[in-house]
């Protein structure tokens, strides 16, 4: 009797253990996303927000390859996919890039680099970044505000009919270890079928609050990430220009006036009012914005002598709107606005030779209507003006991009080399973060670094983290 009872009890015990193992396995599925260990690091300096990559303290967070299929699986699991967000320590990234200099065969280098990427690069956000905004790629990319990482991704919600609304963008954020996923905002039109994936969306942090500012259905909308509240700032707008560095948007309202909206404000401000009298009817065209200034031309439907060639500026200084002119006539090439001045390049050919001098000028129109020019610097190599941000001019000469702090005599600084050699795919243009250049192609991410000693870029290195193939 004892043996029978003992055997019966043993069988029951084994069955209970097997059941417990099954339950435990179900609760610990290997595809559940596991956040990375961050060692409690917070409050680090954020550098180069937006674009392919962002530096946070000793780490660089970057998009793991360009991904353009909004309908693909986007589950919050440990699956490694193109478009996901990964991170790597800068010291480890330098070591990975340095493997290109090892005395190895090409295949051996590839194997070593792949192994190093697998070991050192960490999956942070498994959901893929998505945007179809190719009109203004400067607004696209990942952002870190506070201790959270923000991305846009396709909407996975269903309509009443059971259809996923992939054509809508969703703003999400995560802690920097990939945990605490939050959906803040759905960018949706008046009808669920409206495609919002191409929306130009400016992400900003103002006074500790994260805002999404965008144009949809000819409306300027400001939304708070914290409570998903949205406000229509203006309707029937045109000629929209985003000033990312200053968290501002300039546009033409329904009356044809030039307006400015500062992110976080409750309403927009009219900078250049309409003029419609018996003798004059002005129409404006916004040509550029920079550092809180808007640049525009104007024509008069009732006065043909106003030919629209003069370039004007308008700026709100916190108290008043300041207006003036920077150019009496638009130059043949590119010009950039710099406060109450314009920056452009003039080319001088020396005699019958092919030798040329390229001079960068700052110019404005004085109270007498005369053009005043000031030579800033020149070069025997051609100069391409790229942008001005926070008083710093970015320009390219002889395949090297430099920065020049305008209004000072400080030496120009190296910024990047051969940027045009790095491919641009969709929203993802080459992104400079410190001395690194990140680039994306379909399903792939790469990086190169500048070597100050050789004054050359390193070999472009594939740093795509890939899913292991189970054998």
Secondary structure elements and pairings:
Elements lengths: L1 H26 L18 E2 L5 E4 L2 E5 L21 E5 H9 L7 H15 L1 E4 L17 E3 L2 E7 L14 E7 L6 E6 L13 E6 L2 E8 L2 E6 L5 E6 L2 E6 L4 E5 L5 E5 L6 E4 L9 E9 L2 E8 L10 E6 L4 E7 L7 E4 L2 E9 L6 E10 L5 E9 L3 E7 L2 E6 L2 E6 L7 E5 L13 E3 L2 E6 L2 E8 L4 E2 L3 E2 L9
Helix pairs in contact: 2-3
Name the average pLDDT: 90
- What profile does the largest beta sheet have? 5 strands, antiparallel
- Strand arrangement within the widest β-sheet reads 1-2-3-4-5
Q: Number of helical runs? A: 3
Q: Helical residue percent?
A: 10-25%
Low-confidence stretches: 19-29
Q: Tell me the fraction of residues in β-strands, as a range.
A: 35-45%
Query: For the terminal residues, how far apart are their CA atoms?
Result: 50 Å
Would you tell me the structural class of the helices and strands? mainly beta
For the secondary structure, the number of strands is 34
> Per the principal axes of the C-alpha atoms, what is the gross shape?
globular
Rg from Cα: 28 Å
């Amino acid at each position: 009797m004892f043996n029978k009872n003992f055997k019966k009890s043993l069988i029951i015990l084994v069955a209970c253990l097997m059941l417990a193992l099954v339950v435990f396995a179900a609760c610990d599925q290997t595809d559940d996303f596991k956040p990375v260990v961050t060692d409690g690091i917070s409050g680090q300096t954020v550098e180069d927000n937006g674009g392919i990559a962002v530096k946070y303290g000793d780490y660089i967070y970057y998009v793991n390859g360009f991904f353009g299929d909004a309908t693909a699986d986007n589950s919050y699991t440990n699956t490694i996919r193109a478009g996901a967000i990964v991170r790597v320590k800068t010291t480890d990234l330098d070591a990975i890039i340095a493997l290109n200099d090892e005395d190895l065969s090409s295949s051996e280098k590839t194997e070593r680099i792949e192994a190093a990427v697998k070991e050192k690069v960490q999956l942070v956000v498994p959901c893929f970044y998505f945007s179809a905004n190719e009109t203004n790629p400067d607004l696209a990319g990942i952002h870190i505000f506070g201790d959270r990482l923000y991305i846009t991704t396709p909407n996975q919600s269903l309509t009443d009919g059971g259809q996923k609304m992939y054509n809508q963008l969703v703003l999400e954020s995560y802690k920097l270890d990939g945990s605490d996923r939050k959906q803040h905002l759905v960018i949706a039109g008046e009808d669920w079928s409206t495609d919002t994936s191409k929306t130009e969306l400016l992400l900003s942090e103002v006074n500790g609050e994260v805002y999404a500012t965008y144009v949809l259905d000819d409306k300027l909308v400001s939304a708070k990430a914290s409570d998903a509240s949205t406000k229509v700032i203006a309707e029937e707008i045109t000629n929209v220009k985003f000033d990312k560095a200053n968290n501002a948007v300039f546009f033409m309202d329904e009356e044809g006036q030039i307006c400015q909206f500062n992110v976080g404000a409750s309403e927009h401000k009219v900078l250049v009012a309409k003029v419609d009298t018996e003798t004059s009817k002005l129409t404006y065209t916004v040509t550029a914005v920079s550092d809180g200034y808007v640049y525009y031309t104007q024509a008069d439907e009732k006065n043909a002598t106003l030919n629209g060639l003069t370039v004007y500026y308008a700026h709100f200084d916190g108290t008043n709107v300041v207006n003036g002119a920077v150019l009496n006539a638009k130059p043949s090439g590119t010009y950039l606005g710099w406060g109450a001045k314009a920056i452009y390049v003039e080319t001088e050919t020396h005699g019958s030779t092919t030798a040329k001098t390229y001079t960068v000028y700052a110019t404005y129109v004085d109270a007498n209507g005369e053009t005043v020019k000031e030579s800033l610097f020149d070069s025997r190599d051609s100069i391409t003006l790229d942008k001005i941000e926070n008083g710093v001019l970015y320009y390219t000469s002889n395949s090297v991009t430099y920065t020049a702090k305008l209004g000072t005599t400080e030496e120009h600084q190296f910024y990047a080399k051969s940027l045009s050699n790095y491919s641009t795919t969709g929203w993802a243009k080459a992104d400079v973060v410190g001395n690194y250049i990140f680039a994306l192609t379909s399903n792939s991410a790469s990086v190169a670094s500048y070597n100050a000693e050789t004054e050359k870029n390193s070999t472009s290195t594939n740093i795509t983290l890939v899913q292991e193939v189970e054998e």
